[in-house]
């Protein structure tokens, strides 16, 4: 699995990140997993055509000492579909910038 990982997160920073993610994306429904909706202008042609599969998301997994972002574009409506796949370059850059901006806003330096 391709991932973007920020590790060596300190306990106080973990709490700040959790609070931010809860407010921005809703409380985690299962063990620290947050669903980050992908901006519509970043969808590829197949994703745009699969209206019933939308919205598309990235999974962020917050653990006590790390934040992991899978670089897999998912739909929460299906397990398998042609529209699910690794992020395009623009999608990847976008989600990394979302995570980096969150760390900057929270003044967390790793």
Biggest sheet details: 6 strands, antiparallel
Q: Pairing-aware structural class of the strands and helices?
A: alpha+beta
Indicate the radius of gyration in whole angstroms: 14 Å
- The total number of structural domains is 1
**Approximately how much beta-strand content do the residues carry?**
25-35%
How many strand units? 6
Q: Please count the helical segments.
A: 3
- Mean pLDDT, rounded to whole units? 95
> How do the SSEs run, as a string of H and E?
EHEHEEEEH
Low-pLDDT stretches are none
How much helicity do the residues have? 25-40%
> What distance lies between the first and last C-alpha atoms, to the nearest angstrom?
23 Å
Q: Using the alpha-carbon principal axes, give the shape.
A: elongated
Please characterize this protein's 3D structure.
- This protein is α+β, with helices and mostly antiparallel strands.
- The chain has one domain.
- It is built from 3 helices and 6 strands; from the N terminus they run βαβαββββα.
- Strands 1, 2, 3, 4, 5 and 6 form a 6-stranded antiparallel sheet that branches.
- The chain is elongated.
């Amino acid at each position: 699995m391709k991932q973007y990982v920020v590790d060596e997160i300190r306990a106080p920073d973990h709490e700040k990140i959790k609070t931010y993610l809860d407010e921005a994306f809703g409380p985690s429904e299962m063990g620290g997993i947050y669903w980050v909706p992908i901006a519509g202008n970043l969808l590829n042609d197949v994703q745009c055509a699969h209206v019933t599969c939308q919205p598309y998301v990235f999974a962020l997994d917050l653990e006590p000492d790390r934040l992991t972002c899978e670089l897999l574009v998912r739909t929460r409506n299906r397990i398998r579909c042609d529209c699910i796949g690794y992020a395009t370059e623009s999608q990847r850059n976008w989600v990394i910038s979302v995570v980096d901006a969150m760390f900057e806003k929270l003044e967390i330096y790793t």
